[in-house]
Amino acid sequence: MIENGSTGLFTIGELARATGLTVRTIRYWSDEGALPPVTRSRGGYRLYDAESVARLELIRTLRELGLGLGDVRRVLAGETTVAEVAATHVAALDAQIRALKVTRAVLSTVARRGSSAKEMTLMNRLARLSAGERHRIMEEFVAQTLHGLDTVDPEIRERIRRTSLELPDDPAPEQVDAWVELAEMIQDPDFRAQMRRAVEFNAADRDSGAPAGASLWFVKRLVELAGRAREQGIEPGAPEADAVLGELLGDADRAAVLDRMEAGFDERLTRYRELLCVLNGRPRPPHTEDFAWVVAALRHRAGR
Fold this sequence. Notes:
mainly alpha
């Protein structure tokens, strides 16, 4: 019943009966400062008015939407708006949804691969790396790769710097696989040294006045000539391959070119590029076979 009919004040028990909330819940919200009583009875009981009832309904709505009491108190105190808190909460929910999708993808991958407990733990740890941790790992990798190499082709430098290892919001199992393998790869000192060596060759082959993109011109020319040779059925060890190499390399030192190509297009670096494509939802890197053809032709003539 109403504690004082003339004043229209309510006890916690009456609020509970009117709203369907428990006395314990209302008392807790009151203790936490979200629903302060307007006064107390002569017996010391907390009393609330009609405005308190409306406030209680708002608290319940915000809590049902998942907002913490801290945010609720800020809204009620006028320190922020419902719209601002809702926008923040949407972002938090989006993050939770992404995390759940990653969990689902990891579990799907574990089930598909029949992973051991150790492998599952590793996959889960790597897949759950925060965006900041992924960014830090990639920054370290890029910094070590490019440090002190001022003559690297600017376009190559920019491509390396733009590389990111972000899991999609809804990753497929193969993308989780790719991220796990990539995350391990770029933290491997041997692979980092290998990538550094490939970039060092690019820096050594180019003077500071060379135009940006010159390295990519060579790649384009290689793809054109080697692709044509492959279409014609010319094997790397065939005599006809000599003309292709001559057109591509001119009088350059073939052994030196082979060293550079082996550094930049070996199996691990090729695998690195393939994994990036899987992670980013792009087709497999084009023209891998063209580079392999040139390397094979050079190896054949070098007796390797």
